[in-house]
């Protein structure tokens, strides 16, 4: 009997089976759902060791779960309903809603990154309670942006992002480090830079339009002031601790 041929046949079948299992997981999203539900069960039980083991920390340190848990509904939710998932170049996203007593359904989102062959949770957001609040008044909107503008300009123009990081809400501040903000905003803004125009020259507060996203975020969005066909600035705020706090800034086409 040609044992080499037999081995090759069975090994090939084994590899094919493993590939099919991997493909099935990738297509169904069951691996993402399993990780998300494991994280939420651990959160409800106060098992922070399990929560931390499932996460890849952007700033190198674990969040203070005792402080942020009630904020995002981690300890109060009754059930979770998954709505959609998607694979991305960097990892994956999983979206759903948490049912929380006296608050109804609150959006929840997991963002995964691939680390050492594993998909780990890079960001978790379940505190988009802004869905229950109306848009701030025009003067309040202007105040949010005017307070942010100098720090945003320093980050985009000179890579000095410490002040911008300090304006993040407490939960995101613990998940995203200063260097990560600097790297992303510089990478996103460079393709649209022309004639060394400063941030203040390219965007004006009055050009941004406010709206609520499906997740309950307050989003300001607008084209570059002197490049109408160029970049779009998106600034998201989440409702946290009784007010709107910076969640994320993106620059893109």
Which structural class fits the helix and strand makeup? alpha+beta
Number of domains: 2
Report the CATH C-level class of the largest domain: Alpha Beta
What is the rounded Rg? Answer: 22 Å
Protein model, in words:
The protein is α+β, with helices and mostly antiparallel strands and 253 residues long. It folds into two domains: 27-127, Nuclear Transport Factor 2, Chain: A; 132-252, Nuclear Transport Factor 2, Chain: A (Roll). The protein is built from nine helices and eight strands. The longest helix is centred in the first third of the chain and has 26 residues, at 3-28.
In short:
Helices cover 41% and strands 29% of the residues. The protein has 253 residues and is an alpha+beta fold.
Keywords for this entry:
253 residues; alpha+beta; Nuclear Transport Factor 2, Chain: A; 2 domains; 4-stranded antiparallel beta sheet; 29% strand; globular
């Amino acid at each position: 009997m040609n044992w080499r041929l037999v081995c090759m046949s069975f090994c090939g079948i084994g590899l094919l089976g493993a590939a099919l299992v991997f493909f099935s997981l990738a297509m169904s999203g069951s691996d993402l759902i399993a990780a998300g539900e494991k994280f939420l069960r651990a959160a409800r039980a106060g098992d922070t060791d399990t929560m931390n083991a499932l996460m890849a920390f952007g700033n190198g340190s674990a969040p203070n779960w005792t402080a942020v848990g009630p904020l995002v509904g981690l300890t109060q939710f009754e059930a979770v309903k998954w709505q959609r998932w998607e694979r991305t170049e960097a990892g994956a996203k999983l979206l759903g809603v948490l049912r929380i007593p006296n608050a109804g359904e609150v959006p929840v989102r997991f963002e995964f990154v691939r680390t050492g062959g594993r998909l780990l949770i890079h960001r978790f957001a379940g505190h988009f309670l802004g869905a229950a609040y109306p848009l701030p008044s025009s003067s309040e909107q202007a105040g949010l942006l005017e307070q942010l503008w100098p720090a945003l300009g320093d980050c985009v123009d000179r890579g000095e992002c410490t002040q911008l990081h300090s304006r993040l809400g407490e939960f995101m501040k613990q998940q995203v480090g200063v260097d990560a903000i600097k790297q992303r905003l510089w990478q996103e803004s460079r393709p649209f830079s022309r004639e060394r125009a400063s941030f203040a020259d390219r965007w004006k507060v009055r050009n941004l339009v406010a709206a609520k996203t499906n997740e309950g975020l307050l989003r300001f969005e607008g084209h570059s002031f002197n490049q109408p066909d160029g970049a779009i600035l998106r600034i998201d705020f989440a409702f946290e601790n009784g007010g709107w706090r910076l969640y994320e800034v993106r620059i893109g086409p």
